[in-house]
Amino acid sequence: MSRRRAPCRRQQAAPRRAAPSGCFRSWYLGRATRGLLSSLHRVCLSPVHRTLLGVPLKTNGLCCCCLLVPSPDASIARVMWTLVGRGWGAHALSRGWATGAALGPAPTFGAAPESWPTCRVYSSAEFKEKLDMSRFPVENIRNFSIVAHVDHGKSTLADRLLELTGTIDKTENNKQVLDKLQVERERGITVKAQTASLFYNCEGKQYLLNLIDTPGIQAQTVANFFLAFEAQLSVIPVINKIDLKNADPERVENQIEKVFDIPSDECIKISAKLGTNVESVLQAVIERIPPPKVHRKNPLRALVFDSTFDQYRGVIANVALFDGVVSKGDKIVSAHTQKTYEVNEVGVLNPNEQPTHKLYAGQVGYLIAGMKNVIEAQIGDTLYLHKQPVEPLPGFKSAKPMVFAGMYPVDQSEYNNLKSAIEKLTLNDSSVTVHRDSSLALGAGWRLGFLGLLHMEVFNQRLEQEYNASVILTTPTVPYKAVLSSSKLIKEYREKEITIINPAQFPDKSKVTEYLEPVVLGTIITPDEYTGKIMMLCEARRAVQKNMIFIDQNRVMLKYLFPLNEIVVDFYDSLKSLSSGYASFDYEDAGYQTAELVKMDILLNGNTVEELVTVVHKDKAHSIGKAICERLKDSLPRQLFEIAIQAAIGSKIIARETVKAYRKNVLAKCYGGDITRKMKLLKRQAEGKKKLRKIGNVEVPKDAFIKVLKTRSSK
Ligand SMILES: Nc1nc2c(ncn2[C@@H]2O[C@H](COP(=O)(O)OP(=O)(O)OP(=O)(O)O)[C@@H](O)[C@H]2O)c(=O)[nH]1
């Protein structure tokens, strides 16, 4: 008898126990949980423990349950902790029954029940009914994605589509269901594209609709439209938020016709919030999008288009099958690493993981194959069957980073932890590029490339929230270029034109023929009453007007060539506030142009602040330097001595501010001679100092630099 099957048999034989109220939300979970419990019973518990352990199950989702210990008997809490948090988790894991995580430290004997840890247990695929995906022939499959600017309602539309297809229950609480990350929930934005397979019945046929909800981080919807157009993909124009009082869908239809040459009668007008007309979107997906062009009889070719890392199960690769079939037990090879793996589990995301017997060409799902290292599942890689090697798929054109910043651990002893966190996070977000870097002041670190500033902030926030990392980030910079004249430097770099992503390595003017800065072609569509103000804003950002046309009676489309560094930080915010939110902005890469660039240092009492070294346009150096010094003055606490804050180009000081000396006597608050109060104040002061960085003899709070960065391009 296989040991693995034992708990299943037990649970099947056992009479179905009534779940405590609010306990099991799904039969599968109930079954899985009972299976897990019975294994617990079997393992080693005394009768007393068994009775108590039978009770306390509460679910908090379809495939997740919390085990809470109800008994005030702390010894049971400890048993629970040991079993669930460690021993049992590992035991169940080793048998493929479940994955588990104990949240919080082990309880001490006699601790109050409220302080006991909650143990979260994820039921395993073993206990879920597997779907038969062979019932979806290629002609019944549609792959589609929702692409739009930030806040246009992509995730809300995805919620409605999930509800309409019965993928999730219709409740008041369905808000951005596919936005699963903490940072996405907090900021209300999609950071990571999410996939969901929807099953939809239409005219007697069952369709499989694979949806990808994309982030709107980049202002590149128009550019994306033209990319889709070039690739001859079907585009379904959807006009959202028609429920708003000032919505004017007819006008938007006309604009779409004028700008994109799409007949206005192809537009679908919906309110994703209220669900109005959303079913037409599904109809259009079926009617207007062709089924994928794939071959099930050919050998397997699966494209890895995303991956996540699960502490317990290793790498979960999201795959799109272009050819063939894959199932559990298959031996597959990664075209990138040439390593061979055995497939442990395949399934679809619905929107949570739902195991299937197999995945067939044309389908999109996930695959777990014992990849333990994050680098083993490269996005764009092709997986094929060990016995049937194939030509790899072309993969993806990697996203081009627009902004670079240095990242260093606050404490160098954290270097390895931060390295592993960055590796895991970049597996999750392949648009981030990573190069090793080092600095005299900040130690060993990395230079990371991001799609924009918001992307950088989100990445940083995810490092802090998901990996508890504490990092120093340097001023973001765009990738400048320099054409070298110094033969020594040309020999050193082995090329004449170099790209500079680290301002500290900006070559001196005497060694350079010319500097180049990246430019983008920006498209602004605005009601005409804001045109004047917007033109002034663009000119202040050194932009050159290329075109201006009326796209309807009161809407103007402006095209400007912008230096990239003028728009990456806060151009979009300024444009939105100037136009009361009505102007839209989109940009696409437009190469490089010659520019008069200089490297600017910020000094604190004569010592360079490595985080704030930056490259600026010569004409803006003074105003930017002054703004940084002023803002830094506001962010620095007074210290026992005077602090000179200076902006310098080479040895020339172009701006200066002074922070006056001040003695912060924390004990001044302490009137009496109470020693415990004195100690408390001194301890608090010492804790505060941990958040400081020392530059020379000046102590700088960590957030001081972040505040400073915001002023840069607004000047
Ligand atoms: N009135 C109205 N509000 C809507 C509608 N659709 C979405 N919203 C609101 O618009 C805001 C943004 O919606 P999201 O679905 O997060 O937008 P998104 O495009 O996914 O945003 P990103 O992921 O940040 O790119 C939310 O406050 C929604 O409630 C709609 O049809 N009508």
Automatic annotation (TrEMBL):
Record NCBIfam families: lepA
| Keywords from the UniProt entry | GTP-binding, Hydrolase, Membrane, Mitochondrion, Mitochondrion inner membrane, Nucleotide-binding, Protein biosynthesis
- Subcellular localization: Mitochondrion inner membrane
Q: Which GO terms describe its molecular function?
A: GTP binding; GTPase activity; mitochondrial ribosome binding
Pinpoint the Tr-type G domain residues: 139-293
According to UniProt, the name of this protein is GTP binding elongation factor GUF1
Q: Which Pfam families match?
A: EFG_C, GTP_EFTU, GTP_EFTU_D2, LepA_C
Q: Which CDD domains match?
A: EF4_II, EF4_III, lepA_C
Q: What does this protein do?
A: Promotes mitochondrial protein synthesis. May act as a fidelity factor of the translation reaction, by catalyzing a one-codon backward translocation of tRNAs on improperly translocated ribosomes. Binds to mitochondrial ribosomes in a GTP-dependent manner.
Any one GO BP annotation for this protein: translation
| Species lineage | Eukaryota, Metazoa, Chordata, Craniata, Vertebrata
Signal peptide interval: none
Q: Which residues bind GTP?
A: A148, H149, V150, D151, H152, G153, K154, S155, N240, K241, I242, D243
Kindly give the SUPFAM superfamilies that the UniProt entry links to this protein: EF-G C-terminal domain-like, P-loop containing nucleoside triphosphate hydrolases, Translation proteins
Under the heading PROSITE patterns, the entry gives:
G_TR_1, G_TR_2
Entry similarity comment: Belongs to the GTP-binding elongation factor family. LepA subfamily. Belongs to the TRAFAC class translation factor GTPase superfamily. Classic translation factor GTPase family. LepA subfamily.
Q: Which domain of life, per UniProt? A: Eukaryota
| Species | Macaca fascicularis
Its GO CC terms are:
mitochondrial inner membrane; mitochondrial matrix
Question: Which reaction is the catalytic activity of this chain?
Answer: GTP + H2O = GDP + phosphate + H(+)
Q: Classify the protein's membrane topology as the record does.
A: Peripheral membrane protein
